[in-house]
Write a structure and sequence with these properties.
- The protein is mostly helical.
- The chain is 75% helix and 0% strand.
- The chain is built from four helices and no strands.
- The model has no long low-confidence stretch (mean pLDDT 77).
- This is Transposase.
Length: 71
């Protein structure tokens, strides 16, 4: 087992702790990122199940948009 790679069970505890520290810090500039993390919490943590992202889907969407704008 590699110790330099985060695991999902650890992140279930670390992410909420980070979020609480950010809230307590009073930095308003972190508001957008903390809302994004809260809204996508499970999806972010699901990355650790199989280390996959939605990059292929995003790339395909970008190609469709580029094709549409060139027509």
């Amino acid at each position: 087992m590699r110790h330099d790679v985060a695991t999902k069970p650890i992140d279930f505890t670390k992410l909420p702790k980070w979020h609480e520290k950010v809230n307590q810090s009073g930095f308003k500039s972190f508001g957008t990122i903390t809302r994004t993390i809260i809204n996508h919490y499970q999806t972010i943590l699901n990355y650790f199940d199989n280390r996959s992202t939605n990059t292929p889907a995003e790339s395909f969407n970008a190609k469709i948009k580029a094709f549409g704008s060139s027509c």
